[in-house]
Every structure is written in structure tokens, then in C-alpha cells.
Write a structure and sequence with these properties.
This protein has one domain. It has three helices and no strands. This is Phospholipase_D-nuclease N-terminal.
């Protein structure tokens, strides 16, 4: 069990480090390259690790 936790903790930290800024950006902004706010909220929250990365690449409107 300890072996699993050693690998799981960095993954959880990575997930939170990606999800929190992506979700904040989704909720604060109204314009996206593709899609809308509900779509990006679901993608960021429910597609683990890859969802926030996809948002920053495909969804985030350039400031």
C-alpha cells in the first residue's frame, strides 16, 4: 500500500496544479477558441490530467 501512495501523491498534486488554474480561467472568462463555459468546465473537471491541458491548448482564448 505504501508503494502505491508514493506514486499517487505526485499525481494528485499534478492534477490539482492543472485543474485549479484551468477552472479559475474557465469561470472568469467568457470567450474561448472552441466551445463554451459548460463544456470546458466538464472537460477540466472530469477528464483527469488531460482535460486541463486540452483546455490550455485548444480552449483558452489568447489574451
Amino acid at each position: 500500500m505504501k508503494d502505491i501512495i508514493v506514486y499517487l501523491i505526485p499525481l494528485v498534486i499534478l492534477e490539482l496544479a492543472l485543474v485549479i488554474p484551468a477552472l479559475i480561467h474557465v469561470l472568469k472568462h467568457d470567450r474561448y477558441k472552441f466551445g463554451n463555459k459548460p463544456l470546458w468546465t466538464v472537460v477540466v473537471l472530469f477528464i483527469q490530467i488531460i482535460g486541463p491541458i486540452v483546455y490550455f491548448i485548444l480552449g483558452k482564448e489568447e489574451d
